[in-house]
Design a protein that fits this description.
Length: about 260
């Protein structure tokens, strides 16, 4: 009897036990791979994208080469006339820098034409082709990620009516004032129409629209932030006072 028990103990695992063991090992391996992917998506892509965006800003600042301090202490009261509107640029070309103080004192991102993966995953804010350029009557519409690839618009939901958004180009600074936001389904392309949500209507205002995924860790919806242009000033006038320190910092990096 004892010999029989020892014999049973020496027997190998049953086919079912082997299957369970293999399945368990595969699940553990899959879990590790999933954790590595999440870490790459939420951490490493931000590092890579931020480095590329900083390089793009440095290149733009080299091209802008203008005063980095306000040249007129009464700049908020000065009327510089109709804003200069730059010509459309080629797909993939960076042409502007955006500053949003509400997102932090150091928040600055490049704007690149196009909203494909190559732009949004690497170069910050993407400009919807065929929408207005900065300062132009119509809708200057941009897109950006929230939780990955630089987290460009992660704080979009924190904007408060009256917040200012500054856009710098080779021609000057365009100041937009945030108005309101809207949550829509991904198929709502009318939000980037010349008059947002009103297809076929001729625009009379200079608008700026920011679009991103919603909720923060999902993509079931889109969050849309609308702003209207308040003023503009040529590059020679120096930056608006609120962003002057950051403009100077960017210029120093691009020197």
């Amino acid at each position: 009897m004892a010999r029989a028990r020892r014999h049973r103990r020496r027997r190998g695992r049953s086919p079912l036990q082997t299957v369970i063991q293999i399945a368990g090992e595969l699940l553990i391996t899959f879990g590790v791979i999933l954790l590595l992917f999440v870490g790459w998506e939420l951490w490493w892509t931000n590092i890579e994208s931020n480095q590329k965006q900083e390089a793009a800003i440095e290149t733009l600042m080299e091209d802008f080469d203008a005063p980095v301090v306000p040249q007129d202490t009464d700049e908020d009261l000065k009327d510089y006339g109709e804003p200069i509107v730059m010509d459309p640029v080629q797909d993939g070309e960076s042409f502007a820098v955006v500053y949003i103080p509400r997102f932090g004192a150091e928040f600055t991102r490049p704007v690149t034409d196009g909203v494909g993966v190559s732009v949004l995953d690497n170069l910050g804010l993407g400009h919807y082709p065929q929408t207005a350029m900065p300062g132009e009557v119509g809708n200057f519409a941009l897109a950006g990620h929230r939780q990955t690839h630089g987290m460009v618009l992660d704080a979009i939901h924190t904007l408060v009516p009256g917040d200012r958004i500054y856009v710098q180009t080779k021609d000057g600074y365009y100041t937009y004032v945030y108005r309101n936001n809207q949550i829509v389904l991904p198929n709502r392309l009318d939000v980037i129409a010349p008059v947002p949500t009103q297809l076929g209507v001729v625009p009379t205002e200079r608008m700026m629209t920011l679009t991103s995924c919603n909720p923060r860790f999902g993509a079931e919806e889109r969050i849309i932030a609308y702003s209207v242009m308040e003023s503009w000033q040529p590059l020679s006038a120096g930056p608006p006072a609120e962003i002057a320190p950051l403009v100077a910092s960017n210029a120093e990096k691009g020197a």
